[in-house]
From TrEMBL:
UniProt feature, compositional bias: Polar residues: 350-360
Classification via CDD domains: INTN1_C_like (cd01185)
InterPro entries, alphabetized: DNA_brk_join_enz (IPR011010), Integrase-like_cat_sf (IPR013762), Integrase_catalytic (IPR002104), Integrase_recombinase_N (IPR010998), SAM-like_dom (IPR025269), Tyrosine_recombinase_XerCD (IPR050090)
PANTHER family: INTEGRASE_RECOMBINASE PROTEIN MJ0367-RELATED, PHAGE INTEGRASE-RELATED
Species this chain originates from: Niastella soli
Region forming the signal peptide: none
Keywords tagged on the record: DNA recombination, DNA-binding
Protein name in the entry: Site-specific integrase
Annotated family: Belongs to the 'phage' integrase family.
Amino acid sequence: MNILERPNKKGDKIYFLYDYGRGPGQRPSTGVFIYTNPKDQIQKNHNKEALKLLEVKKSQATIDQQAIGSSFIPAHKFKANFLEYYEEYVKLNARKGNRHLVNSLAQFKLFIKKDFIAPIDITENFCKRFRQFLLDKYSGETPGNYYSRFKWAVSAAESDGYFQKNPSDKVNSKSNPSIKLKENLEVDEYLKLLTTPCLNEEVKAAFIFCCYTGLRWVDVKKLEWKDIRGNVLTTRIIQAKTGQPVTLTLHPIAKSTLEKQKAKLEAVKIQNPEVFSLPTADGANKIVDAWVKSAGIDKYITWSCARLSFSILLQDKNVDDATVAYLMGHTTTDQVRKRYKRHRPKDQVATISQLPTPDQSPDFLNISNKL
């Protein structure tokens, strides 16, 4: 392994480069430099330590080249702390608009409650405990999604030589179906909320906007004016196929909501990049609950019900699953068919009445004939 020297423009420093060849990108920097003419003891000490470091880097690069084509993995390629490996994996593989991988790492840190965990400690039983930690904390598809991303990182670590056998292989991802079905709003209830005052007008405006766009709480909380062009909303959800964000054409109610928000800001001469000024998620849900009750709606409505209602009302109008899935930012129709669907009949009486009924009651049902 050759190391090249290259002075800087001033000539007061010498930088060192790896020499892998003459082609583009084959002379990367080692990140090491020395002073050409050290002026004091500090610079002399720097040069001494830098040359020692350079020898280490040269040795490592030589071993890397010699290991090519063999099953040997140099020790300096390994991270003693699996948490560091996980963090690097997330940094390299995280996709904009998809929070599952980033959140899986955040939950992993909360689970281990320390800054260091050796790969040898990631056992099958450890994986089971982490999966249960997620199942105890979250409902729906969330625990399964987070654990699946953890399995991705462990699988990558196995390929990189950290594990002889993948400890998560036999520990499959699990979802945690909610025992209590979420409520949804019907058409008449949409209209009631539009005309019912709310203690917090920002919360009302944002919730109505979600009802007409299907945005999640986290998305509307971060929504900025730059995401809106005319009557088109550019969401933060990125399509897997095209790599482009999902765009939504705004319903007139949603557009009117934005126009009112903009007028309020202009009236007080405030320039705010965010469309809505919202409290915490818990605080917003409490305000929504009180507002729904004051509208005479006897249902337990939380923020996530707005997204569910958006999907159900579109499906009631025979909008196909693929279109609904796209509008909600899903890559497949699975979530629409499993989660964002009508679980309760809209009108039981009207539904049951669809069964065949004769003009006259049959004789065997005539009570007077039996008496």
